[in-house]
């Protein structure tokens, strides 16, 4: 898929205020500081479409971007470790879960995890929530450029072993790097295929 256009549409904290066009959308979510904004910018080849920050928890709203005028990329707040008040974090969790449970246009959630770290309980718990709620998701491993290829492969295998302790099969996954475009073509091609299926339905 060639990304010909990528435009910010809106930010809000209420699912009923999200765009009402009948277009497929894909939500990107992960722990704070996982490299989500950098990944989004890499996918669309825009340097600052999604705001990057050295401070975890920068994204605090549901952010909709329309890509190629025919699908939405949704940037969701990171979960865990964000430097925000407990009251704000509780609010974030509420509208994140409402988004996932009520948003009919949602095709798939992409859960981002940092490939350099061992499986984190908060990530595994969030994936369990998605599974229990019957919300389809795939995993995106980020920051693959930070490890040598063999170490990357070992990290993925270790993650898969951990997942199989809880899941009958490993969810589909992508290995990416925002620094060198690793995984960009595979991820966009996959979204393109899902968009075609969405239109047929």
Provide an overview of this structure.
This protein is of the alpha/beta class. It has a single domain (6-200), classed as Rossmann fold. 35% of the residues lie in helices and 21% in strands. It is built from 5 helices and 7 strands, in the order E-E-H-E-E-H-E-H-E-H-E-H. It has helices at 36-44, 86-102, 121-132, 149-163, 184-200, and strands spanning 6-12, 25-30, 62-67, 71-75, 106-114, 137-142, 173-175. Strands 1-3-4-2-5-6-7 form a 7-stranded mixed beta sheet, with helices on both faces. The chain is globular, with a radius of gyration of 16 Å. Residues 53-58 have low confidence and may be disordered.
CATH architecture: 3-Layer(aba) Sandwich
What is the CATH superfamily label? Answer: P-loop containing nucleotide triphosphate hydrolases
Task: Count the domains.
Answer: 1
C-alpha Rg (nearest Å): 16 Å
Proportion of helical residues: 25-40%
Strand order of the largest sheet: 1-3-4-2-5-6-7
Q: Please identify the structural class as seen in this structure.
A: alpha/beta
Instruction: Give, in order, the helices and strands.
Output: EEHEEHEHEHEH
Q: Quick one: biggest sheet?
A: 7 strands, mixed
* N- and C-termini, Cα separation: 20 Å
The global form is globular
Mean pLDDT: 89
């Amino acid at each position: 898929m060639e990304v010909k256009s990528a435009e910010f549409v809106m930010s809000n904290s209420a699912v009923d205020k999200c765009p009402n066009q009948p277009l497929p959308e894909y939500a990107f979510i992960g722990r704070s500081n996982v490299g989500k904004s950098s990944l989004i910018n890499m996918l669309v080849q825009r340097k600052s479409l999604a705001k990057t920050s050295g401070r975890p928890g920068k994204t605090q709203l549901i952010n909709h971007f329309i890509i190629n005028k025919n699908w939405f990329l949704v940037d969701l707040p990171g979960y865990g470790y964000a430097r925000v008040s407990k009251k704000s974090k509780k609010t974030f969790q509420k509208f994140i879960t409402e988004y996932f449970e009520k948003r009919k246009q949602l095709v798939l959630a992409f859960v981002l995890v940092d490939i350099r770290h061992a499986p984190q309980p908060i990530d595994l718990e969030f994936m369990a929530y998605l599974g229990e709620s019957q919300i389809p998701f795939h995993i995106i491993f980020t920051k693959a450029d930070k490890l040598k290829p063999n170490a990357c492969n070992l990290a993925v295998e270790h993650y898969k072993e951990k997942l199989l302790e809880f899941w009958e099969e490993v969810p589909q996954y992508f290995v990416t790097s925002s620094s060198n475009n690793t995984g960009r073509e595979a991820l966009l091609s996959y979204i393109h295929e899902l968009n075609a299926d969405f239109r047929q339905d």
